[in-house]
Amino acid sequence: MDLDETDSLSQLSDQFPGYEKFISHITSVTSTFVLPFLYITDRRNPRITASLLNQICCNSGDCSPTHFAHINATACFTARLLYDTVLNALARWEVAWENGCRNWPGEDGKRYNDSVDSFLHGLRNLRNKSWEGKAKGNGRTVDEEPNMVLLIERAERLKDNLPDLIVPLTRLAELSQVKITTIFLSSVRWEDIKPPLGASPDPYFIDIGPPSKQDTIDSLLFEFSSTSTTQLSAGTQDRTYHPSLLPLYEQYVEHVYNVCSLYTTDIRELQYIAAARWPGFVKPVLQEQSEVNADGDPDPDGTRNELTLPASDGRMRLLKFFTPSLTAALDVLYPRLTNAADWALANDPDMQAPEEAQRQINTEGSIIVDHLPRMSKFILLAAFLASTNPAKSDVRMFGRGADKQKRRRRKSASPKKAGAQTTVAKITQRLLGPVVFPLDRLLAILGALLEENDVENRPHEPCFELPGEHTDMELGRVHIYAAITELTSMRALHRTTAVEKLEGPPMYKCGISFGVAGALAKDLQSNSCISMTRPTELASESAAFPLQLLDPRPLKNSANLRLGNEVTDKQVDDHHDVQRSARSSFNLEMKYPTAQVRDSLDDSADFDDPNLDPSHGPEFDDESPYPEVRSAVANTDDPSIHVTTLRTWVLGLAWAIIMPGVNQFFSLRYPSVPITGIVAQLLSFPIGRFCAAYIPRKTIFGISLNPGPFTIKEHVLITIMASVGASSAYATEIIAVQRVFYNQKFDFGYQWFLVMSSQLIGFSTGGITRRFLVSPPSMIWPVTLVSCALFNTLHSEQYAGIGRLGGLSRGRFFIYVFTSAFLWYFIPGYLFLSLSWFSWVTWIWPHDPVVSQLFGYVHGMGMSVITFDWAQIAYNGSPLAMPWWATANVIVGFVLFYWIATPILYFKNTWYSLYMPISSRTSFDNTQHAYNVTRILTSEDTFNATAYKEYSPIFIPAAFVMSYGLSFASITATIVHCFIHFRKQIWYQARRSLREQADIHARLMSRYPQVPDWWYLSLFTLMFALGVVSIEIWPTEMPVWAFVIALLIALTYVIPCGMIQAITNQQIGLKYSLPGKPVAMMLFKTFGYISMAQALTFTSDLKLGHYMKIPPRKMFWCQIVAAIVAGTAQLGVQSWMFSNIPDMCSATQKDGFTCPSVEVFGTASIIWGVIGPERLNVLLQLRVGVLHYRGSQPCRGLACDEAVPKQFDTIREHCIIHHSPLIFNGTYKIPPASALNYVPWALVGFIFQYVIRRRNFAWWTKYNYVLSAALDAGLAVSIIFIFFVLQYPANGSIGEGLQHWWGNTVYYETADGMGTPVRQLQGSETFGPSIGSW
Q1: pLDDT attached to residue 256
Q2: CA distances (Å), origin 218, targets 207, 252, 582
Q3: Least confident of 46-60, 488-502, 525-539
């Protein structure tokens, strides 16, 4: 359809912001050729799309004789009605009383609505009729065959009302031989309504995405401009829509959008609510303007004198004052409990009507229920219960007898007991509107109400002896159905099914509000049927209390509102708090009492949650109480979008093979480059979009090759499947150590059993503990928030939590930062490495060992504190994702133990530490060389005591010793800390279901079927059996009892360690030793610690799926399949490498496959599994002190926690921090990490998580997690690019001259880089104990 004037498209684009691409698409396609069948999907605003299509087709008449018919499938619920409506519209025939409401007669006078054949005959007659049109260019009249367009809005209703007409309508052009285009406009996919067996042709698809926030606001502003122009042209004196008010209206509609967008983004609905409140909103402004101009000349039409808008503080006062009325309007107008005009009149800020008259104003307008008989009132009450509660709750509410109901009510009458069971209500059904229900359900609920509340009012009849017999008789009487019919005629009930429809029971919908239902309940003395939060308070109120409760007329005194300081901020805040309290405390939920989010959190958590910030609490109950979560996670869900499609499995499994295989390959090489999950997250997005755009929409064996647009949930699942096995499985290190150090080459069965059991035992453990680590809102898992922010940014998701800050969009901000991070890393990562290891003090004194020990980065304490490399800063995790209080704990522990205690121990020469660098991951012998473990082994790889005495004891640097000591301390501190602070929450969560969580995300997830615990238990049992087989059939020297103890240790620590990691983003590590059996020691560590670590990794993915609303059962199978595929791929790659790469894991391997991680792991197995800790005198001395310290310190913390009064919160917080496991274990990565990885990390965290968060919360909310994701993504991609383009090819000879300039060598040519100790030996000197004394 071509438009005559070129500016027509521009006018339509102005009228319909955000539809520019759709307008261009539809006009270009339909003007090129006649499409027989077009299917348009618009899930958000189908009514606006229908209006746009209407204008496009109606404006195309000058260039093409197009005749347009726009029908609604809801209104055309019979075949005859549809035929007549279509033909009348195409023929431009108006049905009028003057012609007897006659339909278009045609030329032959036949009826065209008898059948499909007669309808097709009518279309042919329309084609054969002579139409007058203008030929292009000369204006002469010609006869042309018309192009017809049939638009069917709400096409999904055809499947329910007229399923037999779907095929003829989709083949209308083919059957009628007429040039006609059939357009289906629907909010659901074509796959959901298409007939089976390919009876209908495949349509031309057009998917319309949701409008952005700015597009919605522009649409509302266009309506304001249109209304303003109309009023000015009419010369009206009403200045409500004066053009000079446009800036104020723009700010107003943006606020309306922010308030209402959680529940609806429909532009028409937002326009309806905005129009209802705008006259009252602008009334104080107009009144003040009238007072200012009272002494001057009047300006009745408002065109000469421009209105003076209030200042910014006045606007904020207006917005804050009227916010409660906006939510009240949403409550009433969105479900259409009244109309906008009546609501605006009833909530006029200046209305001074008497109180009694106020009470008579009902949100239902003309619906009056006071005169109804008692039975009709019971029917209305039963209808209200059926419309506002799910059907599955009927048995729970009415399945018990009256005696049990009464006992339950008496039990719940205690405010204390009722409060103990308080939970946060779900999204109130009053906002969603009443739902339809069948007549059978209405009668069943009515019977339960009558049996419980009306037995005493009936006359006693001896013929009814059985309980409920009289009620059953009453329900079968004709007067019940007559009363239902009467209520339907009054519009108190709405029948939603056609009268002539015989299939199924009649469907109804309630037409009364919560206030009227409450009044009916009071009148019938059946308050037990409507359970609210405070039943004891309701009993003391008058009968009109429910009507007063929902009446939003506290705004009646707003006539006193002025734009100055006459109304204080405190008064406005108090009014807002009262309105919010009334709105949240009395949401009607059958048998589900409600409460505030924070109150429920206090009941459920009952611990000092450091992540809960009262200064940035949620604006609504349907938001997370944590600003970090609100800024990164949307509090909405669309269950209709695709999750596990064919492309999800193909891309996810492809990544589950590629990433583990590549990472396993390069993990055995030095230097190596990891491919992290964020790489898969970035690359999956364009690949998924490409598949959605170019793969044909065909179905093979019932599986759709391309079900539609690439969704965010598909993207999340693909990323999770890619990251499940992205890092090398820990069990593969055991297999490599057995090959290299102990010459044990077991078959592939042992390897597969070992990897699967260690990986999936962790997965099953994480699933079993999900009610403690995933469901509670306090378990925020900060690391997942970065991924959530990146997902929402890539998919352009808009939600209230990102705030209202203007400026760059999150997507554009991500692109800018990602590009900058990618380019910047070339400088510290390739061109100028010293910017990464910026130990500038050691460059001044390069050969001073004391300076190197304190200020060096390689082997020192890193007191130079500067780096320009994000890889070094984020080595311990992104500081932008970790809460500041946790970062402060870690940095305090670092300063205390590494910048104070460790240098003191070092320079006092404790444990002969002056003969070694202060920090190194290498162990030393008494000649200052790396400890050669092969010298103390026999030919059978067992410990040789004689050789050990002849060689040397093992010496460990001071920082390494401190790291081990803090690890020992953290083991006990973790258990004690969790007992003190988390014991009540653990007990509470053990008895709480997902639906009862005080969190919007948990309640949204409760709609999906949960994974039963027996699934995880079955998986655990199976993997336990595989683990037993792997250690028993093959000679691992590990007994089954040790395997059981290892799992018990993992199960004991998984919840405490998981809670700490979920709150702080720091994982607690555990240390093990099993002397004399190195392979058994490695297996014990794998099953005891790695199973726990793997459980926490899987739990983190479960929390990511929880935030992104992934159905749990689909998530379960994707994780299991991906874990099995990834583990198998890693084993296959490792086996191939050992079989095909010569000199594998040798120091002279020509291609760099020296296996550095295998060497470290093997050395550790010899130290802890062969030598044993009893021969490590240094550690024995340390452990004695640590055991005393770790045993007394938590007790001191407990005493401090209990002794300090609760009022002294600041003192208590410091006492709690003092024994936090973060202080002991936050620095567990030292060595090889140093202050280079902690001090700049803490400084960045302080700037973003404390300073910016406190001073510019709006910027932090919108950009913080996007910035973290962009920096991580740019760094990961840049590392891969540099490695594979500049370092890996040609054996690293590219840019060889550049690699040896001063900026790339200065940092390791100093005493710090070479590891020079303070005391150096000369010749054959040794240090340590005398020979033979160890």
Answers
A1: 87
A2: 21, 12, 33
A3: 525-539
- How far, CA to CA in Å, does 414 sit from each of 537, 826, 977? 11, 68, 35
Tokens found for residue 670: 């030095």
Query: What single DSSP character describes residue 40?
Result: E
Angle at 178 between CA 177 and CA 183, to 5 degrees: 115
189 Cβ contact partners less than 8 Å away, ≥ 6 residues apart: 41, 707, 708
Are residues 692 and 706 in contact, defined by beta-carbon separation less than 8 angstroms? Answer: yes
Tokens of 34: 């006649």
Question: By the 8 A CB rule, do 1287 and 671 touch?
Answer: yes
Give percent helix, percent strand, percent coil of the chain, each to the nearest 5. Answer: 60, 5, 35
Say if residues 449 and 461 touch (Cβ distance below 8 Å): no
Provide the CA 655 distance to its chain's centre, in angstroms: 23
User: What is each CA distance from 875 to 857, 869, 1262, 1284, in whole angstroms?
Assistant: 14, 10, 24, 22
Measured distance between the N- and C-terminal CA atoms of the chain, rounded to whole angstroms: 95
- Residue 872 neighbours by CB under 8 Å, 6+ apart: 836, 837, 1236, 1237, 1240
Tokens of 955: 């010496």
Task: Answer whether residue 183 shows pLDDT above 90.
Answer: yes
CA angle 767, 770, 772 (to 5 degrees): 145
| Distance from C-alpha of 978 to C-alpha of 229, rounded to nearest angstrom | 66
Please name the residue that has the structure tokens 């274990």.
1225
Q: Which residue has the tokens 């006609």?
A: 180
Q: Answer yes or no: are the C-beta atoms of 667 and 1158 closer than 8 Å.
A: no
Identify residue 407 by its one-letter amino acid code: R
Residue 1072 and residue 1088 in contact, taking contact as beta carbons nearer than 8 Å: yes
Say if strands 437-438 and 507-510 run parallel, antiparallel, or are unpaired.
antiparallel
Residues 6+ apart with CB under 8 A from 370: none
Residues in the chain: 1334
Q: Which of 291-300, 444-453, 1117-1126 has the lowest mean pLDDT?
A: 291-300
At 333 the three-state DSSP class reads helix
Q: Quote the CA–CA distance of 765 and 825 in Å, as a whole number.
A: 39
The confidence score (pLDDT) of residue 464 equals 61
DSSP 1102-1114: HHHHHHTT--HHH
Give CA–CA dist 861/878, Å, rounded: 21
* DSSP character string of 758-794: HHHHHHHHHHHTHHHHTSSTT---HHHHHHHHHHHHH
SS3 of 1027-1095:
HHHHHHHCCCCCCHHHHHHHHHHHHHHHHHHHHHHHHHCCCCCCCCCCCCCHHHHHHHHHHHHHHHHHH
Place of tokens 């609490």: 617
Taking the CA atoms of residue 775, residue 777, residue 778 and residue 780 in that order, the dihedral angle to the nearest 10 degrees is 90
529 contacts: CB under 8 Å, gap ≥ 6: 381, 385, 449, 452, 453, 521
Please give the pLDDT value at position 1210.
42
Q: What is the pLDDT of residue 601?
A: 40
Region for residue 1289 given its phi and psi (left: phi exceeds 0; alpha: psi -120 to 50; beta: otherwise): beta
Cα-flanking dihedrals φ and ψ of residue 41, to 5°?
-110, 120
Helix (H) or strand (E) holding 979: helix 958-990
Peptide bond into 36 cis (omega under 30): no
Q: Which of 994, 993, 997 is nearest to 604 (CA)?
A: 997
User: What six digits make up the tokens of 1208?
Assistant: 């002294």
261 or 249: whose pLDDT is higher? 249
DSSP 214: H
Q: Kindly tell me if the per-residue pLDDT of 377 is higher than 80.
A: yes
- Beta strand spans in 539-644 (E): none
Instruction: Give tens-digit pLDDT for 74-125.
Output: 888 888 889 889 988 888 888 887 777 778 877 666 778 888 888 888 888 8
Residue found under tokens 């938001």? 623
